[in-house]
Amino acid sequence: MLGMELLHDRGIVVLEPAGPLAAEDFDRLAAMVDPYLAEAGALRGVLVDTHRFPGWDGLDALLAHGRFVRGHVAHVKRIAIVTASDFAGMIARVAGAVLPPEVRRFEPGERPQALAWLEEEPPA
């Protein structure tokens, strides 16, 4: 289950995994984000707030996650991950090395700082 909210006026998507990610989560996410992207062209950022990496609810969910990322990552300027999880932190470091958006990890309790960072203009 993936909690999600589009902060339309800020151009930020907030994601809160509450259990293993399902393929349907990425369908719902695309249905929420795609109309915004058609209008605005890009998201200022994505904030992922999770205590621990929840994993996927099977291979279909993992593949749906990969398809979603491949289809949307070019339209995201920054990704902030708020977590205490070492595994999620490792994913943030790897993602930052291979994905176009700037990726940064924040500690639990630093959600306001993460949102503020997403709202800043990235360096040119």
UniProtKB/TrEMBL annotation:
Classification via Pfam families: SpoIIAA-like (PF11964)
Domain of life the protein comes from: Bacteria
InterPro entries in alphabetical order: SpoIIAA-like (IPR021866), SpoIIAA-like_sf (IPR038396), STAS_dom_sf (IPR036513)
Protein name: STAS/SEC14 domain-containing protein
